[in-house]
Amino acid sequence: MTSTPEMPVLDIKNYSLDYETANGTFHALKGINLSISRGEILGLVGESGSGKTSLAWSIMRYLSKNARETSGEILLGAKNLLTMSDAEVEAMRGQRISMVFQDPSTSLNPTLSLGTQLSEVLVRHRGLTRKQAWAEGEAMLAHVGLKTPADMMRRMPHEASGGEKQRVVIASAFACNPECIIFDEPTTALDVITSRQILDLFVELQAETGVASLYISHDLALVSRTASRVAVIRRGEIVEQGPVQDIFANPREAYTRELCAAVPNPSRRLVADGVTKTEGEPLVRVENVSVHYGRKPLLASLTGKAFTRVKGNNAVTLSVNEGEILGIVGESGSGKSTLAKAMTGLNPFEGKIWFDGRPITGLSDMDTAYRKDVQIIFQHPDASLNPRHKIGEILSRPLKLYGDGSNIAQQVGDMLEKVRLPRTHADRYPHQLSGGEKQRVAIARAFASKPRLVICDEITSALDVSVQASIVELLLDLQKAGNTAYLFITHDLNLIRQIAHRIAVMYRGDLIEIAPATEIDSPERADYTRRLIAAVPLPAGSQV
Amino acid sequence: MSPNYLLKRLLMIFYTLFVVSLIVFAITQVLPADAAVMMLGEHATPEALDALRQTMGLNAPVWVQYGHWLWALLQGDFGTSLRTGQPIGPAMFSALGRSLLLAFLSIGLMLILAIPLGIIAAIRRGKVADIVVSLISYLGVALPEFVTATVAVLLLADWLKWLPPTGYVSPTEDFFGAIAHLILPVCVISVILIAHVSRMVRSELVDVLHTDYIRAARLKGMSRGTVLRRHALRNALLPTITIVALDVGYLLGGVIVVEEIFAIPGIGRELIVAIQARDLPVIQAGVLIMAATYSIVNFIADMLYAVLDKRIQYD
Questions:
Q1: Which of A239, A278, A301, A391 is the most buried (most CB within 10 A)?
Q2: Between 3.40.50.300, 3.30.450.40, 1.10.510.10, 1.10.357.10, what CATH number should domain A323-347+366-535 receive?
C-alpha cells in the first residue's frame, strides 16, 4: 500500500473523463498522464474550463452523476482509486488524500466553530475522542502559525479573518499526515500579503512533511515560484509538463508560450513613460475626499450617545492628468472601490473633486456633462449588463443619452468593432457571450460617450490571464486613440506595474503614497508599499 | 443581540399595536352598528336610547371615546360585551387559550411530519419519494380547509365512527376526550402547514447540500449521514423558524374556518359571533389580542434565530 521512494505517490495513467450533457458528450479530460512523488510539488496550470478542477474531483472521487470515466486509472500507491468502494473512498478522503479549497469563507460551515470542524477529521480518521481531538487541534493551530490557538478553536468562521480561516483549513488537510494533498487555488480568494503568508506556510509544511502536493492554479507567476514541476492543461489535455525552469525558460508548445507571454510582468512596460507631463491643471483632482458608511442607530441618536461610523475613505487627495493611467492598489477593504464610487456619485462624500477646473462637492454637481466625461467599468460584466437586454440595446442607451441620437444601429456596430467584437453581436443577449466578450461590451458602453476619464474597477480580475492580456491591450489602444485618462483599480501589482504611469497605494481607507510606476519598488517607498511589493511573486526568470 | 435592540423591538411591538388599535377603532366607527340599539333592542324608545348613549359616553367626540377605550385597555380592561353583558377580557383569553392549544398542537404535528418529509424529498431529489412529497404538499396547499375538514369528518367520524365529529372538551376535565376531539382539527390544520414547511425545508436543504462547505466536509472523509446531520440540517432548518412564525399568523386567522366547522370555541369563533352580533367592544378586543399574539410570536422567532445562528447580530 505505502509507496516506496522510487514509486510515485499518485500516478494518473491515460485517464479520460466525459460529462454527459444535454448537448451531447463533453470530453473534460483526455488521456491525462501525471505523477507526483513524495516531497514533490506539481503545479497544474490552466485557464478556467481547462479541466484542472475536474481532475481534482476525479482524484477525490467526487464526481457528478453525469460523469463517465472512459479510460485509464488513478493509482494511490498501488491501489487504483477507480475500483474503490464507497466506504474505501470515505476512509481514504481526508486521511490519505486531502484537499485545501479556494475560498476559506465558503469551505467552512458558518454555523460550526473552527475547532469542531478541525477536530471532526481527527475523530473520524485517527480514532481520537472528542477531547483528545480538541487538544490535538489546538496544537495543530499553533503549528500553522495561529497566535491564540485555544481561542481560535472556539471561534466561529465569521469571527476569523480570511487568512486565519485558510490556516485552519490547511491544518485540517495536514491533520492525518496524508500522502497527498490537493491545493485548489488556495490563495486566490485572499489578499496579497495574506496570500503570501499562506504560500510561505504551505512551502514550509510541505518541506517538513514531504507530502506529495498537487498545486492547482491559474497564476503562472505563483506556480513558477512554488512548484518543482509544472503541467500545463488546456481543454482537458496536458499540453506540456516538465521542470519549472524548462517550462518557463523555453516552452516548447505554442500555447505555453502564449500563456507565459500573457502573464503580467513588471519588467515589460506596456505604456510609454513621460508623455503625460502636462502643464497646468490636471484633468481631475480629488481633494480631501472622505467617505463614511453607516447610519446612527435610533437609540444612540435619541440618547445622544457617541457613534463612530465606518470609514471608507479618509481625506484622500490625488490627481489624474489628461491621458494618464493612474493605478490604485491595495487590499480588499482598503477603500479603492469606495473612491471610485464617490467619484461617480454612487457614494455620498465629503471634500471636493475638481474636474477640468470645475468644483464638484456632491451628487447635485454631477450633471450630464460630468457623467459624459467620467465613466466607470465594473468587475463583473454579468452583474453590470442587464441580462434581459440585447447588446444593441445596452449600447444604444449611452448613445441616445450623450450622442446626437442619429443612426444608432450604425454607431452600435462601430462601437462593437472598436472593441473587436463582430457587429452581429448587437443581436445577442449577454449570456450568449463569454466573460471576456461581455467585458468588451462593458468597455464599449463606457467609451460610447467619448469620456475623458474612465474608472476601471478590477475589470480584469474575473478573467483568465490570456483574456486579461487582450482586454488590457484593448484598453491601452483605446487610451492612445482618445487620450483618455484611466483610474485603474486592481489588486494585481504585476499588472499595474506594466500599464500605469503612476501608482497610488491605499491601506484601510488612507492613501499611503503615490509613486511613478517605475519607482514603486524603490527602497525609499513607504513601509506598507514595500511589504506589498515583496508579497507578490514575480514570474520566474523575470528581473526588474 | 444588544439590550438596545431588544428595547427597540419591544417599542416596535407597542407601536404596531397602537396603529392596530387606531385602525380597529376607526373601522368600528364606520360599521353600521349602534351600541345603544344593540343593548336595548330595536323597539327601545328614543329617550331610553339617548339616556344610555349619555351614560356610555357615545355622544362624546370620537377621539375622546378612543382615549377612554385606550386608557381602560392599558389598565387591562377590555370593556363589556354588548351581547352578553359580561367583561370581555376573561372570555377572550380563555378562547385564545383554546385557539393556541389547537395552533401549537398543529404546529407540533406539522414539524414532526414536515421536516422529515422535506429532508427525504431533498435527499432523493428527482426520485419517486420527492415527487410523492411534492404531490402531497401541492394537494395540501390546493385544498381549502373546509374541503379537507368535511372529508375528514365524513370519513373518520361519520362512516368509521372512530372519532367524535365536532365539539370541544377541556383537557383538564377529560384528557382523553379532549384528545379525541382535537385529533381531526389538528390534522386538518397540519396538512396545510406541512405543505409550506416541507417545501421550504426541501429547497433550503437542496441549496445547503450544494454549498462548498458540504463538499469540503465530504472530502474530509465524513460520511453522508454525519454531513447531513452535523453540517447541513442546522443551516437548512434555520429559515423554517421564520416560516413557522409567519404561519402563526395564518393559524390565528385561518383557524376560524376550522374552529367553525368543528365547533371549537376559540378566538376565531368568538370573533365571528361578535361580528354577526355587531358586538363592537368584542371585535376590537379580539383583533387587538390577535395582533399582539402575532407580534410576540414573531419577536420570539427573531430572537430564536439570533440564538441559533451566531452570525446574526442585531444592533
A1: A391
A2: 3.40.50.300
